[in-house]
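_Per-residue structure_
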Amino acid sequence: MRARSLGQAAVWAGTCIAFASLALTIDNARRIRVPDRDVIAQPESLAVLLPVRNEIDNVRPCLAATLAAVERWPGPVRVIVVDDESTDGTGRALAEISATDSRVEVLTGAPTPDGWLGKPWACEQLVRHADSTGDPPEVLVFVDADVRLRPHALVATIALMRAANLDLVCPFPRQVLAGPAERLVQPLLQWSWMSTLPLGPAERSARPSLSAANGQLLAVDAATYRAAGGHAAVAGEVIEDIALLRAVKAAGGRGLVAEGSGVADCRMYDGWREIRAGYRKSLWTAFGSTGGAAAVMAVMALAYVVPPIAAVRGSRIGLIGYFCGVASRVAVARRTRGHAWPDALAHPASVLALVALTADSLVARCRGTLQWKDRSLGAPG
């Protein structure tokens, strides 16, 4: 009898959490900032910076899209790429591109120093080069190699940053999903912060916990970036984009993640193997600690797995909880031009996949076997 009462309490608790999360999702979908493709930007000096490592399949289309966006920028602009010790022919491809297009500056990356991880170091080198060769830029835009900018992307993104009086903005690109594994897991990237982070307070607050960012496409005011310490302030951070936003907030700046499906596309991972490798490198640190990760995953399971299980066994409250989770996913998908149906119906399976990926990341961290792009991320401290 006691076990039954506890089970019913868990279903009620999970459903209440799912309902509250749905309400927050709907509010966030209404208030999230969106870059305007028809806006006119002021002619500031701009540096578009691409850290690249082993991206032979992405580097040409990424640069082609970036250069098309650069053509619409009204002020002085530079496109700088660092080849971060690639071993797959990316360096040769970049050399060919820069030889035929003088707008592309290519750096050969230096070995990663002690205390740095690969991407922060690559970004640091890009900014140092931009600051030391010519007039220092007023705006920095970091673009990952798997991102495809729309022609209006730079104008719309920076105009949004200036109009909203922000120092950093990350328009979240539309996630291009090809297979079942990607459609199962990848929508949780946007859904996770859309359903848990109150975007209004997050935009105004300096609290580190109220931070969401995405380094796939990140624009930042250069003066604020320097005042925050730049990437040197986040040298050893696996999730360097959120860490950079927190550094900007600590320096008195403001920043947020925006809805960027209209300005860029991104195919982040190709299939389950890449998904697992990508999340393994970062999920262990996404929640602050092992205990934090366990607590977050327990709440996720309580809200989005327990009610559907109860619904199958005839619980009306569980059915309501299940539909709240599905509705939350649908609201995010429609706002971000993602897949709503039938993907949202599998939301409990998506959450279970995230729990498994988090556990896999924590185990790899404990064993000291974390790697990304053929580089070790170091043993546990």
Summary: Strands lie at 46-52, 77-83, 104-108, 139-143, 147-149, 168-175, 217-221, 255-266, 371-372, 375-376. The mean pLDDT is 95. The first helix runs from residue 2 to 31.
